Amino acid sequence: MATEILMPALSPTMEEGTLAKWLVKEGDEITSGMIIAEIETDKATMEFEAVDEGTMGKILIDEGTEGVKVNTPIAVLLEEGESADDIKASAPASDAKADEKAEEPAKSDSDVAADKPVAAQPAAELPSVPEPDWPEGTEMKSMTVREALREAMAEEMRRNDTVFLMGEEVGEYQGAYKISQGLLDEFGAKRVIDTPITEAGFTGLAVGAAWGGLNPIVEFMTFNFAMQAIDHLINSAAKTNYMSGGQLPCPIVFRGPNGAAARVAAQHSQDYAAWYSHIPGLKVVMPYSAADAKGLLKSAIRDGNPVVFLENEILYGRTFEVPDMDDFTVPIGKARIARQGKDVTIVSFGIGMTYALEAAEKLAADGIDAEVIDLRTIRPMDTATIISSVKKTNRLVTVEEGFPQSSVGNFISATVMMEAFDYLDAPVINLCGKDVPMPYAANLEKLALITTDEVIEAVHKVTYR
Amino acid sequence: MAARKTTGKSNVSADELLKYYKDMLLIRRFEEKAGQLYGMGLIGGFCHLYIGQEAVVVGLEAAAKDGDKRITSYRDHGHMLACGMDPKGVMAELTGREGGYSKGKGGSMHMFSKEKHFYGGHGIVGAQVPLGTGLGFADKYKGNDNVTFVYFGDGAANQGQVYESYNMAELWNLPVVYVIENNQYAMGTSTKRSTKSPNLWERGAAYGIKGEAVDGMDVMAVKAAGEKAIAACRAGDGPYILEVMTYRYRGHSMSDPAKYRTREEVQKMREERDPIERVREMLTTGGLATDEDLKAIDKEIKAVVNDSAEFAKDSPEPSLDELWTDIYAAPQEADA
């Protein structure tokens, strides 16, 4: 019987990819392990090996086709005795390009990344509320978070010779998540520096370089690996300006993906927002949209203080509208009201905004008008915006991916209790990731993460309806 | 141990020798005074004295030029005095006063002087090694010929980040002189009990880094080795490792049980290897200074140290609003 070859998922978060090149043609004999195609994902171009043996019966997706969803049949393999004519009738979904029902492959059991509510969303749309971050009438362009981060770094590197990027695979590999793609070509190996796998070493080195007059951007392949270097973030970068009586500021940005990706289990899935937000001397930024990613990263690079810039792998590929301006920055320390409402305040940041906004839309259908605040900066925190919103809505739900104990939401609750206790009509609910190491199994992982339904349920609780 | 090796450089001028004598003596008298002030309760917390190791920093500073940088651990008073920082500011930091280098917010272990290119004063053992490597990285990036001295002890030599730093420094040819101050004890653990391979400088060979052991009780030998290391770094042939064999007379910190070595061992070092006595002897036997000359120097140094102690006692405690300053730097405008 003919075997379908499906578009492979080549990274934990891959939803679709480009079929860059076929290395075999119809009629070729295929052996197991043979490289049959090159697939370009959001991270890299990878070789695709055949698993089964047979004859290449039919190529269903032409090379050069973009946006091929994971698990779409891309070719049919024939067993001995079969001919290409046999499969014409049976080959399903032979035209992926024309497949308008983009959601459908996402429901497949094997496509775990897309199975999560967050990843099932196409280009995320921000609600149309007044945007104070850029002048009215500014032209907008569509851009992924990945492109926005890259553009921010490139612009700042053009602007200032002392800005440089350092980390594992940032140069020749073009970035483990393609954030730094093309930067080596433009800025050269002096300013886009591939390091050995040596987090404690290169983080300390970068802090020293900042004291020596440079403006380093340190990319951690993920913030999980920054644990190897956390002493330098906290004891060296954050505290020295204070301990030197203001003589040694440390202008440095530590950035990289933070939080759960998909199916990478406990050591690779952790949100460090609360950890770093604990430390005086650090600034902690966690953008959701591409505009904020770009504007805040540029501000972080110019800040003159150590900034921990927490990105999210799942958000990298999401598209948002970004103002098309010469020098667009977003101030650190300022929250953004992403959606105005009067019945309840939902505060979130980073990927948590996905659930907060989705819940707000669904709640609106039930007649509950939620105000959604995107914190954007965790430290220094714009508590004033939260307090003033709570004074209006009298109810608060916080949403984050991190663990519950000593969470960012706990701090917000305490602040609201101290500064707006009399305005509260219900106990604050802090929604967090579950209090367990992230499991690998798809169903358990889903259970460990926060969901839109949990946000909706919490809002019903605090609004008593 | 009794027989002293000849110094690496014999035709040293009287002025030079006198300068080293003064610089080392300043450190010793300063540290003795700090010990006293600690005993009087004027200095708190941890306080690590440098007595016995004076020739290391004085010898290396003699080889440095303006613009060179230095960074070290928490046993940092000697380094600061040797690179020209004001004894008053150092002592006032020890007493936690407004006139201290860190306005009283750093203390003994955390002092800095951007002006003198002294980058601390670090309390986490070994952390200064990648940090100092980064200072060298910045100089190379900027294209100047400055060198950074990265000091660490035989204890820190077993920290992993030292070797991460070695690897990157050699990979990128950074102008860094790693100075291992081997005073033979990491707190109370002798190198024999912590380290299987006896020669710490040889570990650099695994990374292709040149290095050597130096007699750290001989200021001239240290200076000569420093000149060689610096020349290599300035010529783009860095990094370089110097393992300077030295000895700390006092305890690890002020509260040291002194059970891990004998009184005789310390006494023998003081009598036979003292770096200051060695220079004093060279000065007198060589007819380069009279007893009167040396007495005058002693008096001068004592006055400087007493002044620093008076300043450190008189300087007020930091004002209470200092609690909330210097947590963040003012926004930098990079291309201003």
Describe this structure in words.
The complex is a heterodimer of chains A (465) and B (336). Chain A has 465 residues and is of the alpha/beta class. Helices cover 29% and strands 22% of the residues of chain A. Chain A has three domains: 3-93, OB fold (Dihydrolipoamide Acetyltransferase, E2P) (Beta Barrel), CATH 2.40.50.100; 140-323, Thiamin diphosphate (ThDP)-binding fold, Pyr/PP domains (Rossmann fold); 336-463, Rossmann fold, CATH 3.40.50. Chain A has helices at 84-87, 112-115, 117-120, 145-159, 183-187, 199-211, 230-238, 240-243, 273-277, 290-302, 313-316, 352-365, 383-393, 408-420, 442-448, 452-463, and strands spanning 3-6, 16-22, 29-30, 35-40, 45-49, 54-59, 65-69, 73-78, 140-144, 163-167, 192-194, 215-219, 252-257, 283-285, 306-311, 319-323, 336-339, 344-348, 370-374, 377-379, 396-399, 429-431. In chain A, strand 18 (344-348), helix 12 and strand 19 form a beta-alpha-beta unit. In chain A, helix 6 (199-211) runs parallel beside helix 7 (230-238) and helix 12 (352-365) crosses helix 16. The longest helix of chain A is centred in the N-terminal third of the chain and has 15 residues, at 145-159. Chain A is globular. Chain B is α/β, with parallel strands linked by helices. Chain B has a domain at 49-79 and 114-302: Rossmann fold, CATH 3.40.50.970. Chain B has a six-stranded parallel β-sheet with strand order 2-1-3-4-8-7, sandwiched between helices. A two-stranded antiparallel sheet of chain B has the order 5-6. The chains are: A alpha/beta (465), B alpha/beta (336). Chains A and B meet through helix 6, helix 7 and helix 8 of A and strand 2, helix 5 and helix 6 of B.
Shape of chain B: globular
Largest sheet of chain B: 6 strands, parallel
Helix content of chain A: 25-40%
Strand content of chain A: 15-25%
State Rg of chain A: 24 Å
Low-confidence stretches of chain B: 1-10
Oligomeric state of the chains present here: heterodimer
Number of strands of chain B: 8
The total of beta strands of chain A comes to 22
Largest beta sheet of chain A: what is the strand line-up? 11-10-12-13-15-14-20
Strand content of chain B: 5-15%
